[in-house]
Amino acid sequence: MSKHHVTTTINGEPSEFLCETQQTMLDTLRDVLGLTGSKEGCASGDCGACTIIVDGKIVCSCLMLGVEAEGKEITTIEGMADGGWHPLQEAFHEEHALQCGYCTPGMIMAASDLLRENPHPSDEEIREGLEGNLCRCTGYENIVRAVRRAARAGASA
């Protein structure tokens, strides 16, 4: 199979990689680029565990092809903090908003997008903003509290 050369920006840094035509962005991130924070939960875009930000919009990386990254600006969970924890990561920790942690990267990416669009969301707006992300452990209450806490602290993307 032939590989395609892709030039993009990932987490603020120029990036070039080779990927196969049908290779998902999730597999490219994890297997080619070694960015393993995004998780595969369903491979059908239903769970949100693989959420990344592409050109300012959240995307399920399991539904995007690696070749589609050409010329795009991509942020993964690894790019959220600069030398420490992002305020959302801190809030998730402080509010015990994770158990197994599998959904956490996608939740944080979706919450970041929500707070960028709406810096002071209501609890209902938080729930709506995270509705594409499934958690099988927490019951969501601590996640909502964490996003609310991050919003109060002025967190944004």
SSE topology sketch:
Elements (H helix, E strand, L loop, with lengths): L2 E8 L2 E8 L4 H8 L18 E4 L2 E4 L12 E3 L11 H8 L9 H14 L5 H7 L11 H12 L5
Parallel strand pairs: 1-5
Antiparallel strand pairs: 1-2, 3-4, 3-5
Helix pairs in contact: 2-5
CATH superfamily of the largest domain: Beta-grasp domain
User: What percentage of residues falls in helices of 4 or more residues?
Assistant: 25-40%
Query: How much β-strand is present in the residues?
Result: 15-25%
- What sort of overall outline do the alpha carbons produce when their principal axes are compared? globular
Low-confidence stretches are none
* Biggest sheet features: 5 strands, mixed
**CATH-defined architecture of the largest domain:** Roll
Number of domains: 2
> What string gives the helices and strands in order?
EEHEEEHHHH
Mean pLDDT: 94
Q: The CATH topology of the largest domain is what?
A: Ubiquitin-like (UB roll)
Computed Rg: 15 Å
Number of strands: 5
The CATH C-level name of the largest domain is Alpha Beta
> Span between N and C termini?
37 Å
SS summary, helix count: 5
Structural class: alpha+beta
